[in-house]
Design a protein that fits this description.
The chain is mainly α and about 80 residues long. The protein has a domain of about 25 residues. The chain is about 35% helix and about 0% strand. The model has no long low-confidence stretch (mean pLDDT about 80).
């Protein structure tokens, strides 16, 4: 009769089987060494240069706060 396995035991058995397969593939690959080609090339990133902007205050220079505090009446 076959023995019942718990879920964890089945997972461990499956993992062991997969590891054996991978081990065989690695050993076969070591016999035939292929050159590694990642297919990538270096690309220089172009970043925009910082530009300085001068903020001009179009208000009056009496109080130094531009048009803050001035009242305007609408007609």
């Amino acid at each position: 009769m076959t023995e019942k396995l718990t879920r964890e035991e089945a997972l461990v058995a499956k993992t062991i089987e997969q590891v054996r397969i991978v081990k065989e593939l690695i050993q076969q690959e070591n016999e035939v060494m292929l050159p590694y080609d990642d297919g990538m090339e270096e690309v220089k990133v172009k970043r925009p240069k910082a530009t300085t902007t001068k903020v001009t205050n179009e208000g009056s220079d009496e109080n130094g706060f531009g048009s803050a505090g001035e009242t305007v009446e609408f007609k």
